[in-house]
């Protein structure tokens, strides 16, 4: 990687299972949402540039809050709105559509502000401190136009006690390169067994099975492929709820032999808020991390 280390945060989605705008929902009394813990951890690993993809619902007061943090802490911060027409579209009527175009489109929206290799994450996932260091040491020397990276997590560490979750189950080759990511939308633990439902039947998976939580390390060359794939997606006349997902785009690049994706298991604990009730779990987790002096009570003081 070149000297500038960039973090791209996807915060533009409209979550259907969580009540409220969870991307900027403060977890503790300090008012910091999960994405600020990600920024804090990235800065500790010498990242110096943050790009956040947002939708128009994000409060201006939150933008001003993080702008002030950026100025005080001396990192570059860019806000990019994910609009229906961020990437120009012709010959397709999408006037009925309410949902954004998906994570692949969200990444593509950043093409004008990122010219260097970058880490991509979800705003509402807590990825842990160590994974950012892993990025710098384990992936950085290898990222190129033909090689990306993925920090994956054991599925057992990514479940919710409040319902099923969607996860990308990774299949790797003998050298730990990604062969396939299979999105399963109904993973849960029942009586200490992890299962997902497919074609009406339950399929068991091992607790240490690696799943993608969208912690990718990309070369900026990905924007060229994303643009082509997005126009292919539009040409297919997608329904009003169909989305253009980043894992599908990466899979297509692998299948077309454009890239190899190196996979490493994250050493960090993952936490997230798929459901509103998950917020209490991450609250307890962060309070215990603060007691262990891994985070200050107020991130930015």
Automatic annotation (TrEMBL):
One of its GO terms (molecular function) is transferase activity. It comes from the Bacteria. Transmembrane segments: none annotated. InterPro entries: NTP_transferase_dom, Nucleotide-diphossugar_trans. It holds the Pfam family NTP_transferase. Keywords: Transferase. Residues 8-271 form the Nucleotidyl transferase domain. This is Nucleotidyltransferase. It comes from Chryseobacterium pennae.
